[in-house]
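tool_call predict_complex ligand=calcium ion
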Amino acid sequence: AKAGGRNTYRFFDTAMAENARARVRLQHELGVALAKEQFAVHYQPQYHLLTREVIGFEALVRWQHSERGLIGPGEFIPVAEETGQIVPLGTWVLRQACRDAVHWPAHLRVSVNLSAVQFRSSSVVDVVDMALADSGLPPDRLELEVTESALIEDHEGAQATLMALRSRGIRVALDDFGTGYSSLAYLRRFPMDKLKIDGMFVRSLDSDQDAQAVVTAIIRLAKALRLDTTAEGVETKEQMVMLRALGCDDVQGFLISRPMPAGQVMPYLARSADV
Ligand code: C2E
Ligand code: CA
Ligand code: CA
Ligand code: CA
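tool_result ok
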């Protein structure tokens, strides 16, 4: 950190102070938005490569900001995680996703992202139970996406939570697979249903041999451990063809569809049934 000398420190001081102010403002605005429920859940289809059918949708939160319009989660989830606001926000998303999914055809699942903070909170299983009970969504139609960061701090606790969820028939997917530290050790230790291959590897599939080797290895590993695989961020036909050849189970990405508002899910399904 010394490389830049004195001026670098001064620059960082100012930048950090500005950053801190922006964060406090965002935290306050998030609080207001939570109270007023100014969020929306959008849904991105997950497409099965063998049956060529949609098997479910991932729930992705957006902030309906009164002045700035729709804001993506990348801008506020990290702050909400720092402040703890992710717990009420995540609960709201989970409940909304269950309420939306219960109206979909019964073979479709909904996948909901659980942040590490949420996953580690002592009430997580109760919150999930209540979301299912209140919506009437059967547990086997819910999938929860967790990242490695949710698992690293307290192995026993994480294992207990995973077992509690999976004993109800809820599925668990390990999100952003390949971007963490010690993925391989976790896979044996933690009961999971699915690996989501990070878009970073998928993006370079058609150009980069190393990415191909990594994706091939992940899919083989998943098969050996009897886990499903979803490839994220699939944008081209070439990527999809390659993933199908490698035995990947399903794909998600702009090639299939961008995330859509809840009201567009049924029309989308009707349209895709026609083709
Ligand atoms: P993620 O869980 O890895 O979700 C996938 C992200 O990739 C989404 O961004 C999605 O819109 C985007 N995406 C999908 N297909 C493509 C593609 O073909 N190309 C590209 N370039 N991107 C694609 P989004 O909706 O902005 O969400 C970003 C991240 O925010 C998510 O990454 C997830 O980590 C987090 N997030 C979103 N909703 C929630 C939530 O309800 N709770 C929590 N804890 N985190 C959430
Ligand atoms: Ca996800
Ligand atoms: Ca992901
Ligand atoms: Ca990601």
